[in-house]
Design goal:
alpha+beta, 10-stranded mixed sheet, 16 strands
């Protein structure tokens, strides 16, 4: 098993698109996860203040079997409008749940989740709309590997310092339907905007290890401690994200995978799932690899454990790559000596 700070696009058939607007009056954005082909999906919502759309459609008890895209966005409840642009663009491409014989007779199902980033460097009423969603999906690429202050994470704050978009991926050997050892991939993308902190105040290092972070200097530890003592943490937040795999899963299994990601959030963020957070995690399964039926329970359990691992690392990855804002420092600006 190998876990590293790769990309969600390490899962074949997954694309990422970002669009953000950052200037004197704007500081928010949208991230779209687009699948080349319809995928099975699941979701698990545990925060006390979620902002979501179409999450009920992912229930194993409901009609729609697969989705084409996810929308992760800033803007709080206002930002859910970004999903309208993703829906419109997919409909223009003839993608979605078919409701008639004609090519245009589709209804795209685009689950979405938002973070609270209102007035963080921009005007309170400046937030993502349908144009953000359209632009993000049009930028969706198989080679997108950027992270940090980008897309939905550009206005994110985590524990009083800049948050952002982070990613991680892992590979695992499992037996396929023919009993042959096959490499499968699990990857995560997280938009980290938590009320809790990802940093241990005693060591000035993340709670969860990151390969790019070493022990910071004594001066940097003191600087970080001073900042953490001064900040006001009682704010509205939310961490949202997705874990993807190339394994074929059914909807209950995809839901279990989404549930496991919250174990990763709890390792990286302390406290997590507070009343002021809206933590929402999705799972996507492209279905390229069929697992052995006789070993399926063990295989799905191993996938779930790996989903927690990549989620935890993706959260720290966001913090490590985030840039400072006008009034909010980043981890690397407070602790430059921590970077390897």
């Amino acid at each position: 098993m190998t876990v590293d700070t790769g990309s969600l696009t390490d899962v074949a058939g997954i694309r990422i698109g970002h669009y953000e607007r950052s200037n004197r009056n704007w500081n928010t954005g949208t991230t779209v996860i687009l699948a080349d082909q319809p995928v099975t999906a699941g979701v698990d919502v545990r925060g006390g203040g979620p902002g979501t759309r179409e999450t009920d459609a992912l229930s194993p008890m409901n009609l729609v079997e697969q989705i084409d895209a996810l929308c992760l966005t800033g803007g709080s409840a206002f930002g859910l409008r970004a999903a309208d642009g993703v829906v419109d663009e997919l409909a223009d491409r003839g993608r979605g749940f078919r409701v008639g014989a004609e090519p245009h007779q589709v209804v795209p199902v685009v689950p979405a989740a938002v973070i609270f980033d209102l007035e963080r460097g921009g005007h309170f009423r400046h937030h993502p709309d349908a144009e953000f969603g359209r632009r993000a999906i049009k930028k969706a690429s198989r080679t997108e590997r950027r992270r940090g202050s980008i897309g939905a994470g550009i206005g994110a704050v985590a524990g009083g310092i800049s948050g952002g978009v982070g990613m991680a991926s892992a590979t695992l050997i499992l037996n396929n339907e023919n009993g042959e050892p096959t490499q499968v991939t699990v990857a995560a993308l997280c938009v980290v905007n938590a009320r809790g902190s990802l940093i241990n105040p005693l060591t000035a290092r993340p709670w969860e290890a990151h390969p790019a972070v070493k022990n910071p200097s004594a001066n940097d530890r003191r600087e970080l401690a001073r900042h953490l003592n001064d900040i006001e943490t009682a704010s509205l937040n939310t961490t949202i994200g997705v874990v993807a795999t190339d394994v074929r899963l059914d909807r209950p299994e995809a839901t279990r995978l989404a549930m496991s990601t919250h174990d990763g959030l709890s390792r990286a963020i302390r406290p997590v799932h507070t009343l002021a957070d809206g933590d929402t995690m999705f799972a996507m399964a492209t279905g390229a690899i069929h697992l052995s039926l006789t070993e399926r329970t063990i295989a799905v359990s191993r996938l779930s454990a790996l989903a927690a691992d990549v989620t935890a690392l993706a959260c720290v990855d966001a913090l490590v790559h985030a840039s400072p804002m006008a009034t909010v420092p980043s981890y690397t600006s407070l602790c430059p000596s921590a970077l390897r």
